[in-house]
Amino acid sequence: MKKILSLAITAALTLSLxxxxxxxxxxxxxxxxxxxxxxxxxxxxxxxxxxxxxxYGADVWKEITAAFEKATPGVxxxxxxxxxxxxxxxxxxxxxxxxxxxxxxxGQVKGLTETxxxxxxxxxxxxxxxxxxxxxxxxxxxKLIPGFIDTTITNPYNDGKTYLMPMFYSPTGLFYNAGLxxxxxxxxxxxxxxxxxxxxxxxxEGISLFAYPMPGYFDSFFYALLNxxxxxxxFNKATxxxxxxxxxxxxxxxxDLISKLTTTYTEKTVPANANKDNFTKNQQLILDNKALFMxxxxxxxxEMSKAxxxxxxxxxxxxxxxxxxxxxxxxxxxxxQIWVPAKAENADLAKQFIAYLYSDEAAAIxxxxxxxxxxxxxxxxxxxxxxxxxxxxxxxxxxxMGAFATTDPVEGVNISDTVFRSIDSLVTGAKTQQxxxxxxxxxxxxxxxxxx
Length: 452
Known about the structure:
Order of helices and strands: HHEHEHEHHEHHEHHHHEHEEHHHEHHH
Helix content: 25-40%
Largest sheet: 9 strands, mixed
Radius of gyration: 22 Å
Shape: globular
Number of strands: 9
Distance between the termini: 30 Å
């Protein structure tokens, strides 16, 4: 699951990281790396890798590190891979023992990556882009699909520098049972009016139009919708807390749509299971034909690979419906990140390892478990479900990328909680649409002055 992929660390850990991971050194990568001395002396260098175990499993990282060790004589990689990686590496970091490289995306519930970003505790990785991929004759930047290193996620400080490198990417959108649509002779809605009409139709058969795994999964949905209602310029203003942006006609359109979807067309049992322990029960609603659509990413296929399903089940995938016939449809691209703490002991070796991850050799290893990197030409090598998913942008959908801008910490304010994790309250009726909107406006106003 991306959110374990794919969605703030405890106050104690946040404070401790700020205390022990200050940014006074090496954010620019200029300090001397002890690994250089070891390399020159012939001594074995050790790289400490910490990675979140996702639906791709832990074994793929073991295979990757073994291949890197083989390609890089004199290097030993120590791996820590866990589904609760923040909890595992947290105690060591409190005492100053930091991994050299961490694979953990933004958007996790405990917010470890965001903590490092907000506290300026990241190593500048801009020079990785100009590094030649180990074993090849091309630079990292030349291998990457354009756009992935020009986002507010990879370049969080708006200073032209890259601090988080893009790893596995996944088009997100609405997943459904294509087999059910074929059996019923239904057309997949291409506009929201068609979506509402279908919702009214299936209600008579005891089927809900919509479900979601956890409220955090509304991040990709919300970002795509912001692009639909106002385009890229509106999206950028909204995610950078521009004054008055949430009181515009475009914002109102987005709020009205989400309110209608959650209060009228969402399966009412969803909030009870919308947590990291039971989220698959909500995903199971699609496989059991109890709900039609859910927002998710390509990892869901692996997560539900052994789950029971209705006869004739077949994965379907579509972008968000357009606001009007012929309008733009968007699919948000979620991508994971890998980064180096400012206090990493072997930052230079960590950069070498990251550069290796974009090699054809590493990409082939990752691809075997469905982990696709934003490397040019990778989609041409896919088949089956992945071919369907990654071809969404070839079929008319526009790609949306980016997220809420990074700010200095503001006590008591978490924009992700305010916008996304309040969705449960809309479904249950604990919050009205206006209360939800008022919370977003208030949080945005408080974060505006804290922009990085």
